[in-house]
Amino acid sequence: MIYLDNAATTKMKDSVVEAMKPYFTEIFGNASSTYTSAGQAARKALIQSRETVARCIGAQPSELFFTSGGSEADNWAIKGVALRNKNKGNHIITTTVEHHAVLHTCEFLEKQGFRVTYVPVDEYGMVNPDDIAKEITEETVLVSVMFANNEIGTINPIAKIGKLCREKGVYFHTDAVQATGAVPIDVNELNIDLLSMSAHKFHGPKGVGALYIRKGVKIENLIHGGAQESGRRATTENVAGVVGMAQALKEACDNMQEKTQKLVYLRDKLIDSILETIPYTRLNGHREERLPNNTSFCFRYIEGESLLLSLDMMGYVVSSGSACTSGSLDPSHVLLGIGLPHEIAHGSMRVSLSEFTTEEEIDSFIKAVGPIVQRLRDMSPLYEGVGKE
Prior knowledge:
389 residues, alpha/beta, three-stranded antiparallel β-sheet, globular
């Protein structure tokens, strides 16, 4: 199997597994049981992990709260700010191409009486800060814009948006699930008030993530119960998962420059080769301002599902877009959001790399895609006569 679907999830590193092991079998105490030696050992690991993760994004440990993943972090950031600040206003601004953890949360709040503005993006999937500025009113309490798109890889001008929100006195949240561990992030330099991340996107375990909440941000709790996470998120701490997350993010940040150089080389080789050898193909997303490991294409005159199944039978694992919507037959809302018609959006393929990806795997994949696309086109009545006189 050649795994090229790292935007959906990543393989856990052996070093991460080894770091987690003791917290399943030896240091298994409840981190909230602070008056027992077993609990104290678990709590120490929790404290150290929080310091590690916070340091990777330029935050203070007291500003970081562990969650079950990115979707929970998104829900907490948006619902929490909206509910806590509804006396100030009931207006939220986001974009049309956000992850569904953001979009569906906003739709839920609309049913509760909140007003949400969905700002469009350009043909590359990038939002214009000026468009956000035009929508901010005295009723606006939150702007939520993803750091980098999970489907097409485009990186948004986060620093400009953060500065704008700071000047307007509006909280700024970014879904950085795809960006954390992939690109440098400093929440202070970027004026980010809330940031979501998930460990399984950077070779950590599934089921654990975090929400950064800047000190002073007024936000309601999402999960009520005990006093865990400084009283902000009740439930017994997932110590092993948190330790794994910290180990994975530390390694990702420590090796980022070297890893990025390799990934950009492989990414650009893949993009150039596909566009040069397969006609009627387009690259989705911005050519330069994109994640180092992301490529996304649309092939005209075929169905993306058929392409993915054919590749899977040959041992190549890719996707058509977000793993969270893979069961849907509808075209990607992201591809529609950048202006693609349904018939082109249906022919999408996302190929996402990792530091484990080799050049030999990319070369093999490039050779495999072209013949499959041509075979599928030859069976399509839409392709009949295309390019022929």
